[in-house]
Specification:
Length: about 260
């Protein structure tokens, strides 16, 4: 009987140790990744030193689907936007750099895309942790910029990561449910229009890797995102930042119905 309890104790200790090791490994991995992006974030700040960005513009941030959007500034005219996407990032990384790539600009609105890389590998993160990271992002922005609109773009379906789509779709639903409870926040559904009549991602919406958006996909995203921004943020939005908090909540609710 004693040996049974000893074996059970040793098994429990081994499991706990393994959990600690995995947790440390994941934490170290994210710290390493964040330091890897430090040159990119620093380059953004150097650009700002040369060409200052006035408050009240719109920040787009997130992973490579934003970073590779080369036509973004033109696509969103007459709105003034800046691209602060950095490829390979996860929501936790966007949160880590939020002060420097979002809040520092005092934007009238921020559009964020993430979750794709978070769930790509499977197992390390869950739809629930992605939703929690989105919640954290909204809280970070609104804690310092309560008048700023936060628009979260749905995780896109893709050919390369189709096996992960069920988890991504679940994360989208959790994020949408959360955003419905928030003032000055909205969910933008780009996922549904990217699926064909058979419920699969349309191949012409991706470049050759089957993952990153093609020009046609960005044109679709523009047709969805730009009208929403024009509805909530005036092209000259410097006065937007002084709007009383709480205004626009009913608009946000009606918009979320339309946005999905």
């Amino acid at each position: 009987m004693r040996n049974h309890y000893i074996r059970r104790y040793l098994v429990i200790c081994a499991v706990l140790c393994l959990g600690v090791i995995v947790g440390i490994g994941e934490f170290a991995g994210r710290v390493w990744a964040q330091q890897e992006w430090e040159p990119t974030i620093g380059a953004f700040e150097q650009q700002d030193n040369v060409h200052s960005v006035p408050p009240g513009e719109i920040v787009f941030t997130g992973s490579s689907s934003i970073a590779y959007w080369s036509s973004l500034v033109t696509d969103m005219k007459p709105l003034q936007v800046i691209n602060r996407g950095f490829g390979g990032s996860e929501y936790s990384d966007v949160n880590f750099y939020a002060d420097r790539i979002v809040i520092a600009y005092r934007p009238a609105a921020v559009v964020v895309y993430g979750g794709d890389n978070d769930l790509a590998s499977g197992g390390r993160k869950t739809p629930q942790t992605v939703a929690q990271d989105v919640q954290r992002f909204v809280q970070l922005v609104h804690a310092k910029l309560p008048q700023t609109w936060v628009f979260v773009v749905s995780i896109k379906p893709s050919i390369a990561r189709w096996k992960r789509w069920p988890q991504m779709r679940e994360a989208n639903q959790l994020v949408q449910d959360f955003l419905r409870t928030q003032d000055r926040a909205g969910y933008i559904d780009v996922a549904t229009p990217m699926l064909d009549k058979d419920g699969r991602p349309s191949p012409d919406l991706f470049i050759s890797d089957g993952l990153h958006p093609s020009a046609k996909c960005y044109a679709m995203w523009t047709s969805i995102i730009r009208p929403i921004l024009l509805e909530h943020v005036a092209p000259s939005s410097s006065s937007f930042l002084s709007a009383p908090r709480g205004q626009g909540y009913e608009n946000q609710l009606s918009a979320s119905t339309r946005i999905r």
